[in-house]
Amino acid sequence: MKNLFADIPENLRDELFETLLQARGFRIERIVSRGHCSPAGFWYDQDENEWVILLKGSAGLRFKGQEEVFVLNPGTYLHIDKHIRHRVEWTDPNQETIWLAVHYRDLDAQSNPI
Amino acid sequence: MKNLFADIPENLRDELFETLLQARGFRIERIVSRGHCSPAGFWYDQDENEWVILLKGSAGLRFKGQEEVFVLNPGTYLHIDKHIRHRVEWTDPNQETIWLAVHYRDLDAQSNPI
Question: Which of A19, A26, A51, A105 to probe the B interface (max B CBs under 10 A)?
């Protein structure tokens, strides 16, 4: 039994990515940011779908082709389809921002038969 | 974009179970309790594995054959293997207890080839 909000390193030069569970077809990951954001001009373009929830701190998320920056607060969750390009414009500089992300391949067996 | 801590019904006669994402091989669920606990003598005995995190409130969890009641606070997460019998002894009577559960079949493709 562990705590998602514990075991945060003092020194967070880079964002921290940790796999909490690796299972068949999906993976649960904890991400810890502290003022980090995506590099200028960088867009995530992922091969897997992502269901993500922000649980501490806050962040600004932008999708390619849109001007709006969506503000995520504790509890905000969203789905990012694979290859939907997006970037983290900012995260709270004064505290950790903690995310829980579920990366996975296929929506369901019906639409993706073996 | 939704919030896990929002849209809580005033009236929570029964625990609230909502599927947030149904994907291939797993399902993400929100559970809202308010003082609920497992019925006397009842033990969960699930066909699927469960990764679960408590995110608001608190709860007491017990495993069959053990006396100890494990107290879960916000951020506490644990893995419950399928068919490990367990029960919720109590949840906070004064506020909602909100859980996020990931139910899934197989640990990984290597140990469970198609």
Answer: A26
* Model pLDDT for residues A21-36, shown as the tens digit of each residue: 999 999 999 999 999 9
SS (H, E, C) chain B: CEECCCCCCCCCCCCEEEEEEEECCEEEEEEEECCCCCCCCCCECCCCEEEEEEEECCEEEEECCCCCEEEECCCEEEEECCCCCEEEEEECCCCCEEEEEEEECCCCCCCCCC
One-letter identity of residue A50: E
Predicted TM-score of the model (pTM)? 0.93
Q: What ipTM does the predicted assembly reach?
A: 0.91
- Does B108 contact chain A (CB < 8 Å)? yes
Residues of chain A positioned with their CB less than 8 A from the CB of B25? 23-26, 106, 109
**Helix (H), strand (E) at residue B18:** strand B16-23
